[in-house]
Amino acid sequence: MTVSPDTPAKQARRTGLPLGWLGLLPFALFALLFLILPTMNIVVGAFQTPDGSLTFQNIANLFQPSILSAYWISIRISFATALLGCVIGFGIAAAVTLGNLPAGLRGPVMTFSGVASNFAGVPLSFAFIATLGRLGLVTVLLREWFGINLYSLGFNLLSFWGLTLVYLFFQIPLMVLIVTPALDGLRREWREASDILGATGAQYWRMVALPILTPTLLGTFALLFANSFGAVATAYALTGSSLSIVPIVLFAQIRGDVLQDPHLGYALAFGMIVVTGIANGLYVWLRAKTERWTV
Amino acid sequence: MKPKLWSWLVFLIGFAYFALPLIGTLEFSLRKRRGEYSLDAYAWVFEDPQFRETFGYSVVMALLTIVFGMLLVVPTAYWVRLKYPRLRPLFEFITLLPLVIPPIVIVFGYIRLYNTSSFLPMTGTTFGTNMLLMFGYVTLSLPYMYRAVDTGLRTIDVRTLTEAAQSLGAGWVTIIGRIILPNVLIAVMSGAFVTFAIVIGEFVLAALLNRPAFGPYMQLIGANRAYEPAALAVIAFAITWFCIGLMQLASRMTPQSRAKRS
Known about the structure:
A: MetI-like fold, 0% strand, B: mainly alpha, MetI-like fold
C-alpha cells in the first residue's frame, strides 16, 4: 500500500480505524491471562530454583528411574492406542466408504463416532469396569457360557493393555471422523485409471491411495498420540494412582500426595508440553501438506 | 455392487467393541437388587442430594461457559474477519493451543499463577475460584467454539452487512448483537453443544481447583459404590449423545453445509 493524500472515502473509513485494535483486546487479554501466561509460568518454572535463579536441575531430575518409567509407559500407551486407533479406525472408515455397506449405515456410524470421541473421562472407565471388570458382563458371560476365566488368564483392566483397550473407545471414533472425508477425497477416476493400466487392487493401494493418504494418516496418528498422552480422568477413575503414567503422577504431585520438590512438578508438566507439542506440530505440518490433495 | 465380505466383518467387530461396553454398563446399572433387574441404582443416584448439587453446579457452569465464550468469540471472530483478515491464521493457532497443551498443565499454571499470594488471587475466594474454573472451561472450549463461529461467519457477507448497517446508523453493539449474532446463531449453537458435553463431565480442572462439580462427584461415587457408577455412566452417555445429536442437527442446518450437500 502507498501513502496517498486523504481522499474523502479514506477519511470516512478512518473514523473507526485507529481504535480498531481495541476490538481484539478482550480476546488477547483473555488468551494471555488464561492460556499463554499459565503455560509460560510452567515453562519458566521448570528452569528455576525455588528462589528464582536459572537452573537445569529440575529437568535433570526428570531422569530418575521412576519418572522415566512413567514417561516411558505413557509414551507406549499413547503409541499403542494411536497406532491401533489409526488401523482399526481406518478399517471401519474404509468399510463404510468403500466396502459397499448399505448407505444407511454411514450416518449412524458418523454420529456415533461424534458421540464416542467425546465420551472420555470418568464415565468411560465405569463403562469398562461394568463390562470387563471382575464382575462385568463380558467377564461373567465368558465364565458362565464358555468356562473362560479372563482374570486367571492374566487379563487385568488396570494394566497396560487394559488401559489401551479403554482408550481405544475414544481413539477409534476420532480416527473415523478424520479419515472418512479423506477417503471420500480419493477420486473414482484414480482407481479406474490404475485398473485400466493393469494394476491389481494391492498395487492401487500401495502406489496410489496410500501415498496420497499418508500425510493424513501420520497427522491423525500424531493427534491421537497427543490426545491419549494428555488424558487424565479416564486413567485416574480406572486405576486411582496405581498406574504410574505421567498425567497421573503430575495429578498426584499437584494434589500434594507425592514427590517433595514442587519444581519437579513444573519439569513434569514441561515434559508433557514438549511431547504433545512435538506430536501436534507434526500434525499441523503434515496437515498443511495434505491440503492440496483434498480438492 | 454387493457389499464386500471384509467390510461386513470389520463393521461387525467394530460394532461389537462399541456396543458391548454400553450393553454391559446398562446391564450392570440394573443389577443393584439381588436376583432381578431394577432401577434401584438410578433411584439412589437421583435421591442423592450431592448428585443434584454437583449436577446443577456443572449445568450452571456449562451455561455460563457458553454465554461467556459466545461473548468473547463472536465479536472477536467478526472483528478479525472484518478488519484483520491477515491475523486469522494467528487466531486459529491460538484457539487450537488448548488441544496441544494438556488441560492438566493449564490448570497447574492457574494454580501457580492465581494463588493467594499472587497479583490476582483468584483462588482465594469461592467466587474467584468459580470464575477461574469457568475461564478454564472457556479456554478448553475455544478450539470448538472459535472454529464453529468462524465457519458460520464464512457463509455470510460480513463486510456488506456491516456497511449496510452502518449506513442506516447502527453502532457496533447493534451490528454485532442484532445483525451478526442472529446470522451465526446456528453455528454458535453447534459449538455450544460440544462445550456443554465437555464441561458437564469434566474432571481434572474441577478436581484440582477443588470445586463441587459433576466430574469429581462421579469419580467419588466410582471409588465408593458398586452399581451406581454404571448408572452415572449411562446418564453421562445419554447427555453426551443428546448434545452431539443437537450439535449435528445444528451444523446440518447451517447454510454452508446445505450448499455443500445439494
